[in-house]
Design a protein that fits this description.
Helix content is about 50%, strand content about 0%. The protein is mainly α and about 110 residues long. It is flat, with a radius of gyration of 37 Å.
Length: about 110
């Protein structure tokens, strides 16, 4: 499904040439007769499990894991929000200071 496909480019004459050409002649090899039995043994068929069975312990572990994920993601989002807020405040303070300095230059 996800294998790359290499196109074969046709020549202007209409002859299609493959990308890889064999360099050595290929000789036919006759298969050797094997000495083992070809009768297959039946494989036991297991019924597919369609439902997930949760024990009380695994349910508690799943709930605790979900809670931990929520806490971690929440902490990351809050810290990012604080970083943006602090950056905005510092930029605003810098703008006020620069405006004050520019006004003092105009007065003197």
């Amino acid at each position: 499904m996800l294998q790359p496909r290499i196109p074969v480019n046709p020549l202007p004459t209409g002859i299609v040439t493959p990308l890889v050409q064999p360099t050595a002649p290929v000789t036919a090899v006759e298969p050797m007769p094997c000495r083992h039995d070809h009768t297959s043994t039946p494989v036991p068929v297991t019924a597919p499990r369609t439902t997930v069975q949760l024990t009380p312990g695994s349910a508690v572990a799943l709930a605790a894991g979900g809670g931990a994920v929520v806490l971690v993601v929440g902490a990351v989002l809050v810290s990012m929000l604080l970083a943006v807020a602090i950056t905005g405040v510092s930029v605003a303070v810098c703008a006020v200071v620069l405006k004050s300095l520019m006004n003092q230059e105009r007065k003197h």
